[in-house]
Amino acid sequence: MGELILTTFDWVPNMPRGYVRDIRVRWALEEAGLLYRVEGVPFRDRTAGHFSRQPFGQVPWLTDGDISIFESGAILLHLGERSSALMPADPRGRSEVLEWLFAALNSVEMASLPWSLLNFPGGTDTPEWKLFDGFLHQHRLKHLEPVLAGRQWLTKTFSVADILMADVLRLVDRFDGLAKYPACRDYVARATARPSFVKAHADQMAHFAAADAA
Ligand SMILES: N[C@@H](CCC(=O)N[C@@H](CS)C(=O)NCC(=O)O)C(=O)O
């Protein structure tokens, strides 16, 4: 494994702070106890070099020696290969982590992200918001609630799947979307009480605060 460099924006407005997806990578790196450093790229003027690393001009991406990898899910899978604190080694445990990792990103976040974004501009009194609200609650959270009521983590031990699922649900909780789902809320509270999350969150906030001060 080469030197690990996490790239994120050098600055973002206040609203997304604490929720920028580099937090997923910071959290995983902290859980695994891997050394890394963080580099910033401009938020406003995105260069061709930035697009060559992240084709949508987004963050984060991770550099691991001569490998450059984007998409937070792919980055966490990459790190999962390097630490049993993130991904179990046995085939059954591994496939359980994989299915829940994709469930977080492909089933829950695909519903929760539009719902969260629609909370901003027009508020909750729009047909679009109501459509996503119904979908998120009836087809996702209602079914996730009994799953999380019966277990501490998604799989036998804490894994990258929990980092992603907890981070996805955290944004829903920010807009009070988990009010009717105590098991989902407890799960988010349990995950975000982990020292690695607390450090990752504090480091992200400090990173953007340092840009304000500069
Ligand atoms: N699916 C991508 C999403 C990345 C993403 O949405 N990044 C946000 C920050 S949290 C971003 O770069 N936003 C700026 C933009 O989209 O222009 C991932 O999980 O890495």
Question: What can you see in these coordinates?
Answer:
There is one protein chain. A hairpin with a 2-residue loop joins strand 3 and strand 4 (67-70). Helix 1 (22-32) runs parallel beside helix 3 (72-80) and helix 4 (91-118) packs antiparallel against helix 5 (127-149). The mean pLDDT is 96. The longest helix is centred in the middle third of the chain and has 28 residues, at 91-118. This protein has 214 residues and is an alpha+beta fold. A 4-stranded mixed beta sheet has the order 2-1-3-4, with helices on one face. The protein has helices spanning 22-32, 48-53, 72-80, 91-118, 127-149, 160-174, 182-192, 195-213; strands at 4-9, 37-41, 61-64, 67-70.
Keywords, separated by commas or semicolons:
single chain; 214 residues; alpha+beta; four-stranded mixed sheet; 4 strands; 57% helix; globular; binds glutathione
- Whole-number radius of gyration? 17 Å
Q: How are the strands of the biggest sheet laid out side by side?
A: 2-1-3-4
Q: Which stretches are low in confidence, meaning pLDDT under 50 for 5 or more residues running?
A: none
Describe the global form.
Answer: globular
Number of helices: 8
Q: Tell me, rounded to a whole number, the average pLDDT.
A: 96
Structural class: alpha+beta
End-to-end separation: 33 Å
N-to-C SSE string, H for helix and E for strand: EHEHEEHHHHHH
**Which distinct ligands sit in these coordinates?**
glutathione
Percent of residues in helices comes to 55-70%
Largest sheet, in brief, is:
4 strands, mixed
Q: State which percent range the strand residues make up.
A: 5-15%
DSSP, total strands? 4
